[in-house]
Specification:
- The chain folds into three domains: about 110 residues, 3-Layer(aba) Sandwich (D-Maltodextrin-Binding Protein, domain 2), CATH 3.40.190; about 80 residues, Periplasmic binding protein-like II (D-Maltodextrin-Binding Protein, domain 2, 3-Layer(aba) Sandwich); about 80 residues, ACT domain (Alpha-Beta Plaits, 2-Layer Sandwich), CATH 3.30.70.260.
- By secondary structure, it is α/β, with parallel strands linked by helices.
- It is about 30% helix and about 30% strand.
- It starts with a helix and ends in a 14-residue tail after the last strand.
- The protein contains ten helices and 15 strands.
């Protein structure tokens, strides 16, 4: 890493996130980095797209980036996966947060004056049954983010927004109906990105509850793997996980973007943090059955949220 880039990282502890202000990505960034800034607290920079978050980290305009990667009911965020295919940045952390959807309007606006409901496409999908029962006549407008929908609701009295309480507070909207998502257990997983030489600062001891008992730390490792298009290729790819009794938590195929009908696999697996030799052994066993193999990152496993609600891509 150049001296100039390193100086920028040292002087500008900036966290880039998918904006605008008030998105669930903004909330995830604030939640993850709370207590990590010490005497030099982080600032948060809103980006217009997931691609812009990656570019900000890659160019060292930001030290860290926060992007959504998957939702517990709607699945993967394709834009994030596609960016991971092309970028040298790595994953150094994750956070899973609950996201409660609310039906928001500008102050003084009544239901009778509404003609449109705006939100991110994932949020509209996750509230479709509530909308069908309660607001079937409203036109649906897809936005780049729920915060953008909140901005539209403030600017256009006939538009309601579906967004979180954080967005309602940020943009001064009134909650006409809360917790309108169709599934109460949804959650969104966000990735923390950084350049290869940048380390994640530890949480300050002052924010750790007094008397908390130490717990065994588990790690998640994310891989990007390509194989030959031959019979039995997927079996040979998965066999080492079984042989080493490794917890394979996710495998998902995605177009490689290099040739038509060629796919790569995103793989997540879990191991004990004190067992790096297990990861090394797995990579050795995987190598003969792959045409390319890249470790996207090994990072602390985020605790689950058992009563979570939400949508991805925000």
């Amino acid at each position: 890493m150049s001296t100039e880039i390193q100086a920028n990282l040292d002087d500008s502890p900036v966290v880039a996130y998918l904006g605008p202000q008030g998105t669930f990505s903004h909330a995830a960034a604030m939640a993850f980095f709370e207590g990590r800034g010490g005497s030099n607290p982080f600032t948060f920079d809103s980006c217009a797209s997931i691609e812009d978050v990656f570019a900000s980290v890659e160019s060292a305009r930001s030290r860290f980036g926060v992007v959504p990667i998957e939702n517990s009911t709607e699945g993967a965020v394709n834009n994030t996966q596609d960016c991971l295919l092309l970028t040298p940045v790595r994953i150094i952390g994750e956070i899973v947060i609950p996201i409660v959807h609310n039906f928001l309007v500008a102050p003084g606006v009544t239901r009778e004056s509404l003609h449109t409901v705006a939100s991110h496409k994932q949020s509209l999908a996750q509230c479709r049954r509530w909308l069908a029962r309660n607001e079937p006549a409203l036109d649906k407008r897809e936005c780049a983010s729920n915060a953008q929908a909140a901005e539209a609701a403030m600017a256009e009295p006939g538009v309601a927004a579906i967004a979180g309480e954080f967005a309602a507070q940020t943009y001064g909207l009134h909650i006409l109906a809360d917790s309108i998502q169709d599934h109460s257990h949804n959650s969104t997983r966000f990735l923390i990105l950084a350049q290869p030489d940048v380390e994640l600062p530890a949480v300050s001891p002052s924010v750790i509850p007094t008397g908390s008992a130490p717990t065994a730390v588990q790690s998640k490792t994310s891989l990007l793997v390509a194989t030959d298009n031959k019979p039995g290729a997927l079996f040979r790819l998965l066999e080492p996980f079984n042989a080493l009794q490794i917890d394979l938590s996710k495998i998902e195929a995605r177009p490689s973007k290099l040739r038509a009908w060629e796919y790569v696999f995103f793989i997540d697996f879990i191991s004990a943090s004190e067992e790096p030799e297990v990861i090394e052994a797995l990579l050795v066993k995987l190598a003969p059955s792959t045409t390319s193999l890249r470790v996207l990152g090994t990072y602390p496993l985020a605790p689950p949220n058992p009563t979570t609600e939400g949508a991805s891509g925000e």
